[in-house]
Amino acid sequence: MKLFLHAHATHPDWRFALSLATAQLEAQRAQPEHIDTPTLGWVYFSDHYGAAAEALLAALRSQWPGVAWVGSVGVGIAANGVEYFDEPALSLMLGDIAPAHFRVFSGLQPLSGQSGFTPATALVHADASAHDAAELVAELAGQTATGYLFGGMASARGRSVHIADGVYHGGLSGVAFDAQVPLISRVTQGCRPIGVVRRVTAVERNLVVSLDDEPALACLLRDLKVDAHDPREALPRLRATLVGLSDPDGEQARGGDFGTETRVRHLVGIDPGRHAVAVADVVERGMQLAFCQRNTDAARRDLVRICTEIREELEPETLPLESAPALRGGEAGNAGHLARQIAGAVYVSCAGRGGPHFGSPSAELAIVRHALGDVPLVGFFANGEIAHRHLYGYTGVLTVFASPAV
Known about the structure:
- The protein contains nine helices and 26 strands.
- The chain has helices at residues 14-29, 53-63, 133-141, 216-224, 235-239, 296-313, 335-339, 354-358, 363-372, and strands spanning 5-10, 40-46, 68-74, 76-79, 82-85, 89-95, 102-105, 121-127, 148-154, 162-164, 167-168, 172-177, 183-188, 191-193, 198-204, 207-211, 214-215, 242-246, 263-271, 276-279, 288-294, 344-350, 377-382, 385-388, 390-392, 396-401.
- α6 (296-313) packs parallel to α9 (363-372).
- The longest helix is centred in the C-terminal third of the chain and has 18 residues, at 296-313.
- The relative contact order is 0.18.
């Protein structure tokens, strides 16, 4: 198995950054351990380059004819062990997955309209401003054999775009893979419950009235250990509180940490008159709900967990294609040994995570590199992460390509 090509660079002018990255790619291309005939490319670029997205894509096509390109803009972008926040930068990866085993899709070229191809899973980029993004993600997941998507929402302080052999605003785009492309994907949480998991027993769209038949506001104030008679005094703590939602039969929090199916949403208000709390999502009766807060230790521990799970999936050293399904599980050893089993990786993390949340510049990506080794990796910091058939928040989604299809 050969490694994908990968490069990253920063420069005020995107043309110089692309030139620097291209030199890195060409140098790798000459090495026997890397691929030499790419078919699919990933491009992630900081919002400093957002206005030049069309020109950047045109330059990539000119430099690498015959390569299909997907990607997104981000307020931060990721590479192997490196994060770029608040600076002009780009991150590239080129793979040699056989064209018969993937399809690029967009609003102009929907996945459902591509006959003769059976998608198993898909990398998805989306516009966070789309009011129906959650519904579009769920609908797209239903068009894949596994029901599993991975990716994220474009993030930018200005022009928000995503790439799929074109530059798009709104909707979804990305690349789907069939069952012959073995990959492993995991979700890592960044929040921790501050109380017990309860069941929603009364709700009106996003207004949660009762939990376990008890007023929702009373449950919240008790979890926060604040005076129920004057909740306004607790406003600073309320602003730091989030809500973890999961389906009625979803995975419970384990060992004080959320399971992979929990979706974190903002707590947007309280209704003292009705003893209710308002959540930034439509909540359904029977859902599981836990109040939570961001927690660096929990985020670090869970990131190590998913890297460990991926390591375990990749053992033993040989991974026969016929025994590796397109997706393993739905959900520090010899890193050099492991790196030889990974062709490339994509990591999408929340814009609220990254080095600042983990304590130092590039700390989050440093954890991934320490666990997986020196592997080709690209990604970005999103305005909402996509995994399974849901939109997440404050999470990271790590996907590795175990070997290219043949």
